[in-house]
Amino acid sequence: MSMRVKEVAELVGISLRTLHHYDEIGLLAPDETTDAGYRLYSDANLETLQQILFFKELDFPLKKIKEIMSSPVFDREKAMELHRKLLMEKRSRIDAMIATIEKTVRHARGEIQMTNKEKFEGFDFSRTPYEQEARERWGDEAVDEANAKVGGLSKDKQQEISDEMNAIYFKLATLRGGSPESEEAQVAIKEWYDFLNQMGSYSPEAFKALGQMYVDDERFTANIDQFGEGLAVFMRDAMAVYADKSKN
Predict the structure, then answer these.
(1) What range(s) does the HTH merR-type domain occupy (predicted)?
(2) Eight-state DSSP code of residue 107
(3) CA triplet 21, 173, 158: central angle to 5 degrees?
(4) So where are the chain's domains?
(5) CA 206, 146, 140, 126 torsion: positive or negative?
(6) Which residues, 6 or more positions from 48, have their beta carbon under 8 angstroms from its beta carbon?
(7) pLDDT digit string (tens) for 40-71?
(8) CA gap 5, 11 in Å, rounded
(9) Rounded CA gap, 124 and 183, in Å?
(10) Is 40 helix (H, G, I), strand (E, B) or coil?
């Protein structure tokens, strides 16, 4: 049964302007428009909207959402599985911060004592759990330079970078069932190469070596494969192809 745009807005709890914007940018076009100009949304449109809002909840920018969902290899069921994992991880962080708030209130009332470590449980600003590994491989200067770049950015900009990183991982995860040599895979892996070079300086050789480390180091593999089993291997292969072509 078709629904008018106003009905969809009321059902979902978003504004008419938002739905109009999604239509204008080609993210969510209703299946039908009446002669009078009314937008009519099908059940399939509502499923697409649900998917978009899951991405939005995870802070993906609209441009990236459109890229991911318009991919011919986009798999809605696999995307839902990944959404679930990421949202559960987000919930765990939020639960930890709520617990810290509750403890802090009780501490302020004199009901309990908190250690300095307990005061900051749940906060995670790094998103880079392998800094020591990076220092051992590339030296303090390279890591300090990268940290200085990130540290000099505003919190909003740091969040934007984090969101962009997750969006690229997600996009690559949707492609991992295909060939790492495909044009689409190579376009996506170039996005990863360009992203990394915003933070540091990677030659094609270093990029290829980094991809190999994604597989050789089980910590990297586990972290990357949260976005989809086999992603680390796929990225390694795609990075190797990109690096070899870049040298030619």
Answers:
(1) 1-71
(2) H
(3) 65
(4) 3-57, 76-247
(5) negative
(6) 28, 69
(7) 999 999 999 999 998 888 777 888 888 888 88
(8) 10
(9) 36
(10) strand
Torsion of CA 215, 216, 220, 223, to 10 degrees: 50
CATH code 1.10.1660.10 for 3-57: yes
And the tokens for 116? 């300095």
Q: Other CB atoms closer than 10 Å to residue 73's CB: what's the count?
A: 13
CA distance 146 to 139: 11
Two structure tokens written together for 208: 């290829």
Q: Which residues contact 123 (CB under 8 A, 6 or more apart)?
A: 97
∠ at Cα 86 (28, 66), nearest 5°?
20
Query: How do residues 18-44 score in pLDDT, each as one tens digit?
Result: 999 999 999 999 999 888 888 899 999
Beta carbons within 10 angstroms of residue 33's beta carbon = 13
Q: Do the domains 76-247 and 3-57 match in fold?
A: no
